[in-house]
Design brief:
TIF_beta_prop-like, globular, Methylamine Dehydrogenase, Chain H, WD_repeat_protein, single chain, 4-stranded antiparallel beta sheet, 28 strands, Translation initiation factor beta propellor-like domain-containing protein, mainly beta
Amino acid sequence: MDLLSAAYGATSDDDDGGGGTKATPTPSWVTTGFSSAAGPPLKRPRWERPTYLPPPPCPITEPALPRTAPPPANPAASGRYVSKREWALLAASRSPVESSSPLPPSAAAEVDSPAVGSISDLNLRADIFHSLRCQPKPKSTRRLPLKLSISLASQTKAVNCIDWSPSHAHLLASASMDRTVHVFNVWNKGNTTACVFKFHTTAVKDVRWSLNGLSLLSGGLDCSLRLVDVEKGKEIKVFKEDQAVEVMKFNPSNSNLFLSGGSKGSLRLWDIRSGLVSKEYQRSLGTILDIEFSSDGKQFICSTDTSRSNISENSIIIWDTLRQVPLSNQVYTEAFTCPCVRYHPFEASFVAQSNGNYIAMFSARSPFKLNKYMRYEGHGVWGFPIKCNFSFSGKELASGSSDGCIYFYDYKSSRLLSKIEAFKEPCTDVAYHPVMPNVIASCSWAGEISVFE
């Protein structure tokens, strides 16, 4: 090494420019100040794979993923190894997300929709379709309904009330003790059951069509009144009571108002637009059995169930609708309750179905006296909620009966015109068709509904 150092470290003769040999130029790295120990830098740096460096000791805060974000479908796609334990945890984390997913739209619609058939009148019998479109006016006729036209699907328990739609006269509604409200497309060639509403939680005591449009109002023992849009199959409003609802009626002069009566004897006039009580008629009464508006809506009658000694003062009461005061409370002096009261469509009189097994007639003008010479007898009541109704001409009066028959009386003479055997069980309600005068619907304590023509 010493010899090599001496040989290369000695100054060459050519360094001083002597001889004919050209001097070697000085490298640039010497003039730039690099020491001889470091050596010259590479002219072209060679690319090397970057070395993985561990994270710095200070933790880096990363944004947290939302809890609702589902895990990746395939974690192995990231290129890392996934253990069996991690796969199991991943599957467990996915199960609650999948179980809470909503039902498909079709399944949800089947659960919520009460529609069973159609409410359209395009599939009716030809003769019925023609009669409904021609809109014959109820005129003087002695053609009484005698022939069974159709028996509708029976409900599982007693039917309390039936009502024809005034605007869609092929539809019939019923209220039943089985907690349902049925709408029947009576003469439909296919399925006659159009809708079944199950919004009430207990027995439904009364149902009424709105005076305009396809809306139904029902009341039941669950202390509620429910307004339903039949076309959409949805509940529009719920009116809460502090008593079981027994009966309700729309005011004929204002379709936004209806009157309700219940088990505690309260009478309330409701406004559909606000959903609130506009008037309340206070008096110590028993259960309200029936109510009926006069044709102008200025008065209404209520019949009550009471067992006190002053039954003659509470059995039937005439009220002034606006002033909220009773016009008379000593109308019916006999010791019987009346499950049904009805105004005559044209004359100043009304009738009351008596538990004495007859129908009594009263004057609709003060002092509202009982007509002692007119009494419709022959049918039986015997404690059942038997109802009666006038024909739209006002010439006949039809009544259900405890023997399952329908009885037809002449209004002027109270003479029995005819009777037809409708059911084996008591016939609870009868309702004349609003367009065809020779058609009547009836229902029974056994849940049957029949239409006669």
